[in-house]
Each structure stands twice: as C-alpha cells, then as structure tokens.
Amino acid sequence: MDQSEKITVSCLIPAHNEALRLGAVLDVVLHHPFIDEVIVIDDGSRDNTSAVARQYGVQVISLPKNGGKSAAVASGIAAASGSHLLLLDADLQGLASHHLTKLIRPVKRGQVDAAISLRRNSPLVWRLIGLDYISGERVFARRVIEPSLAELRDLPRFGLEVWMNQLWISHELRLKVVRWPGVESPWKTTKMGWLAGVQADTRMMRDIFDTVSVRHAVMQIWKLKRRTVDAQRAPPAP
Predict the structure, then answer these.
(1) CA-CA distance, 28 to 21, in Å (whole number)?
(2) What are the φ/ψ torsions at residue 63 (nearest 5 degrees)?
(3) DSSP tag of 40
(4) 17 Cβ partners below 8 Å, 6+ apart?
(5) pTM for this one?
(6) Are residues 19 and 47 in contact, defined by beta-carbon separation less than 8 angstroms?
(7) Nearest CA to 131 among 223, 215, 25?
(8) How far apart are CA 62 and CA 207, in angstroms?
(9) CA distance readout (Å), 77 to 146, 158, 183
(10) Best CA proximity match to 115, nearest among 67, 161, 177
(11) Which residues contact residue 87 at a Cβ distance below 8 angstroms, ignoring those fewer than 6 apart?
(12) Which CATH code fits 3-227?
C-alpha cells in the first residue's frame, strides 16, 4: 500500500509577537498539497499575531499569557487531527513550497520516520556536523509525542527540541536531515535589539540545559546522527 495514503499532516506554528513575519510563512504553508491542517498557536502575543493568522482562515489558538514554546506546542498538538505533525517557526525567511516538500515527502513515503531541517544560518558547527539538534522545523508521527503531552506542558519554556530528541531516540526513529540552503531564522538580536536578544538567547540556552545536561545534549547529537539515513535509499516502512 502506498504509504502516503495513510498520512495526514497537521502544521503547527507557535508564534509570539510575530505579526510582521507570520504572513510570509502562512503564504507558503496554506496551499501546500502535503498539508491538511494549519494551526497557529499565539503564545500570549502583544501585537496582532492572532489577527494576522485569522486573516488566512487557519485555526488559531490564542493563549492568554506567554507560557513559552513547549506549552504552546503542547496546546497545538492537543488540537491537531493529523496522523503526523509538521512544526514550523513563525519567523522563517526565504521559505518556499519546495522546502516543505523536501521535508515532508520522505516521511509520507515511509522512507524515514522523522525529518528535521538544517537552515542556511544554522550555527556553523551544526552545518559542519550535518545536524541542527535544536532545529524547530520537524516532521514526525503524532503518536510519538501525544502520550507525553502533560510532561511537555511542564517543560522549561524552550526545552522542547532537546526533549523531543530524547523521544525520537527512545523510539528509534529513522531520521532524515533536510538542508534548507535558502531559509533563515532571524537572530534574536536582529528581532529584539542587541541586549534583549542576548538575554533571550541566554534564557533559551538555560532552558535547554535545564532539560538535558550538556553531556546528554552531546550524546543526543551522536545518537541522532547514527539514526540518520539517506531517504533516497531507505526502503518504505513495512
């Protein structure tokens, strides 16, 4: 049976004060043939993020206060109906339809169990290694994460990706890293100013290492690299 017949994709976009950038992402996502549902989770924004999302006719979850990415994504997963989830950051620049196709297609075909992006402006060390272990653009089965939503809601605000890595490793998922050479995520210093951006990055790193130790983060990279396969050669899942 064609693997793609079994799969539906819910795209979850957590957003905090992204009214200026969200529309560019939704322009690409909204009519992509592989995406069946789009949910924007407005994480307590003080701008018009929710209003922008509603203009596109997508489902919007407006959280009353900013609780962080982990809790926002948990709310989106609870509302999603697709068999698989596509997580996207709301501030991506240069995103095009073919980038999403490259990310989703190996999973739809059953060649891999999960896919993760490697953007043009990912830190140099991750581009050299060939894996950005905290990339926010991912595709995977909802059943992998849904039983753990209560735990996800209680994570540090930005502990999502490293916590998810542990799930992928424990489930022994086959992974495809998809290079997105034309896509960037703006630095926080660009979006917020130098001081506020540095402070935000510091808080994010603190949350990451409150979720996993530095040693475990390094081990994650090694284990995920071992799970990486070439989707062109990988057989479909039985």
Answers:
(1) 12
(2) -85, 140
(3) E
(4) 45, 46, 47, 49
(5) 0.89
(6) yes
(7) 223
(8) 23
(9) 7, 16, 25
(10) 177
(11) 11, 12, 14, 73, 136, 137, 138, 139
(12) 3.90.550.10
- Confidence band (pLDDT; 50, 70, 90) for 166? very high
Q: How far apart are CA 85 and CA 5, in angstroms?
A: 16
Residue-range domain boundaries for the chain? 3-227
State phi, psi for 39 to the nearest 5 degrees.
Answer: -125, 120
Q: Which two tokens stand for residue 201?
A: 């990055």
| Model pLDDT for residues 33-60, shown as the tens digit of each residue | 999 999 999 999 999 999 999 999 999 9
Q: pLDDT category, 4, cuts 50, 70, 90? A: very low
Q: Helices marked H in 35-176 — which ranges?
A: 49-55, 69-79, 97-108, 124-129, 142-145, 149-153, 160-170
CB 73 within 8 A of CB 14: yes
Reported as a single tens digit per residue, the pLDDT across 111-162 is 999 999 999 888 778 788 899 999 999 999 999 999 999 999 999 988 999 9
- Residue 1 pLDDT class (50, 70, 90 cuts): very low
